[in-house]
Design goal:
This protein is of the alpha+beta class. The protein has two domains: about 100 residues, Phosphorylase Kinase, domain 1, CATH 3.30.200; about 210 residues, Aminoglycoside phosphotransferase (APH), C-terminal lobe (Aminoglycoside 3'-phosphotransferase, Chain: A, domain 2, Alpha-Beta Complex). It is about 50% helix and about 10% strand. The strands form three sheets. Strands 1-2-3-5-4 form a five-stranded antiparallel beta sheet, sandwiched between helices. It has a two-stranded antiparallel ribbon with strand order 6-9. The protein has a two-stranded antiparallel sheet with strand order 7-8. A hairpin with a 6-residue loop joins strand 1 and strand 2. Helix 8 packs antiparallel against helix 9, helix 8 crosses helix 10 and helix 10 runs antiparallel to helix 11. Bound molecules: adenosine-5'-diphosphate and magnesium ion. Adenosine-5'-diphosphate binds next to strand 2 and strand 3.
Amino acid sequence: MAAADADIIEGLRGAGLIDDGEVVLEPLTGGVSCDVWKVATPSGPIVVKRPLPQLRVAAEWLAPVERGISEVRWLRRARGVDPRLAPEVLAELADYSFAMRFLPGCPVWKDELMAGRVDAAFAAQVGQGIAAIHAATAHNETDRAAFPNDAMFRALRVDPFLLYVAQHDAALAPALTALADDLTSRKIALVHGDVSPKNILVSTGGPVFLDAECAVYGDPAFDLAFCTTHLLLKAVWSGEARLGDAAAALVAAYRAGIDWEGADDLLLRAGQLTAALLLARVEGKSPAPYLTDPDHKNIVRDQARALIGAPQPIDTLVAHWKRT
Ligand SMILES: Nc1ncnc2c1ncn2[C@@H]1O[C@H](COP(=O)(O)OP(=O)(O)O)[C@@H](O)[C@H]1O
Ligand SMILES: [Mg+2]
């Protein structure tokens, strides 16, 4: 066993989560930025998450290890809004690691979508859940002070998703740079920063949001755009009309929860961000791994470029999105 793993076990013992018996750290799949293990304990399975100093992706995205702190804070804050929305944090351990309760029998939403199990009602619950967290934290000085993570959000989201494409495309650079500036300047609500179907568990009580390492006090339109982007990309990948319907259901449910600013303004910002994120997923530093077919990439690229030039509110964008 590596020394670091021994540290984790010692930390779990210190927190009273495990006893002196044998402990097995079972790696959970999926992570590029963390070690994530499932650990059996006398009071049921838990998850231990330890941020890696450097992300396991091709490009060298250096991210401060402090993102573990933001994640724990986000999970606790989201549970304060509604305990069904996030797993319970059980202990904070050394090196920004933490333990949370494992949710048994809850598939990852991405796996459900990729297997063709597309449930618009669940997508609506996702929209409702994100909006509830935004509404609860909007214009709140305490939340703003608790998530001063602008540098991290810039390194993990603004640079790779917006500015990287701008640097490689002179025609779109002015629009994308302006969008990046607008995104960084807005301080409206607590943003999760990685609302992707791979970070949402499907539980009987609705969606459970994981992986809030990029959490920042910023523009809530980002979360809506980020999640919608994933559904639109998957719609092109599968050709499934139901994925477009799910995106529309998500946006409609989110819209119904906006009570902190004018909905029209937010939906337009979300539409602009969605266009940029769609393009980033075919031309940026973090391409969607399943979108390998050149025809699929062209369908996304052509629509995204047109939308960056002539922005539409996200509900209109979703309604007009072409899968072929
Ligand atoms: N509390 C939990 N209950 C059940 N499964 C979990 C839990 N936390 C994480 N997982 C599983 O581990 C995977 C990786 O966790 P995540 O927090 O997304 O880490 P990473 O930053 O490495 O992506 C998730 O996609 C999910 O399958
Ligand atoms: Mg994840």
